[in-house]
Amino acid sequence: MRPSDEAKLALFIDFDNIALGARDAGQKLRIDLLLQRLLEKGKLVVKRAYADWSHYPDFVGDLHEAAIELIEIPAARRSGKNSADIRLAIDAIELCHAKEHIDTFVIVSGDSDFSPLVSKLRENDKAVIGMGMRNSSAHLLIANCDEYIFYDDLAQERRAAAAAPLEAVPENKRQVFDFLLGTIRALLREGRDTLYSSLIKDTMKRKRPDFDESRSGYATFGDLLEDAQGHGLIEVTRDEKASRTWVVKGIATRSRRGKSTRPPAPVAEASAAAVKPPRERPPARSRRGTEGRARRRPRRPAAPPEA
């Protein structure tokens, strides 16, 4: 995938809604899970979160680390009710007209008040992805988005991945293989038909800009894919029509995970070559006794010559 083909995403977070929804659901809100899922879809070019940040001091550090712009909204008693929602909607519409290269807007909220905003963005040929908690997301908003992601599912997927470690894989390769498998699963979930190696690596670089396969001992990304196939983790092939580019066909079944797919040496042939066949003994000569031999008659002495 060329960089120009990547989706350009603008992220707008109604932090009050998502934080309170996570609290009511008994879940810990992790910003990294939210961002990692969105980076699988494209490049995040705008990231803004709206709240009275004096209420969320524990999240400010993580948001700053993720390079999310914090928009301060004073308390409702001073700024009025729904001030954060209004400011978010105005900024989104303004960005929609000012930045034509942004083709996807992400609204992190379950509030039905954002439904008119979603409709207006779609009128301007923008895709809209919603994200929120399952217990606090309005059906009206969910139905109006092009796609809606429940944060609950992200947390569940994370726990499922952690519960299935690659025990049969060498310990020094588990981290890079886990990252690779997670990225491939995400692309398959997004409906990608052909997973070229360049697409997989670009996605991994978006999620972790410092990713470099050479740090794990691989000269090329193709070597990493080939080794993952050798451990029975994925199925890969080469596209003869695209300069023999590596193409991932899918994730290997769990029963094959961690097992080498390299064909074993033919045991029968090796053993046959190692063991020499017994030498054939020449047929035994018949040992006949003297009794069985025909006795030669004694030769008569020659007659003396006549005088």
TrEMBL record:
Pfam families: NYN. This is NYN domain-containing protein. It comes from Eiseniibacteriota bacterium. One of its GO terms (molecular function) is RNA nuclease activity. Residues 253-307 are annotated as: Disordered. PROSITE patterns: HTH_OST. Residues 176-252 form the HTH OST-type domain. Residues 267-276 have a biased composition (Low complexity). Residues 277-293 have a biased composition (Basic and acidic residues). InterPro entries: NYN, OST-HTH/LOTUS_dom.
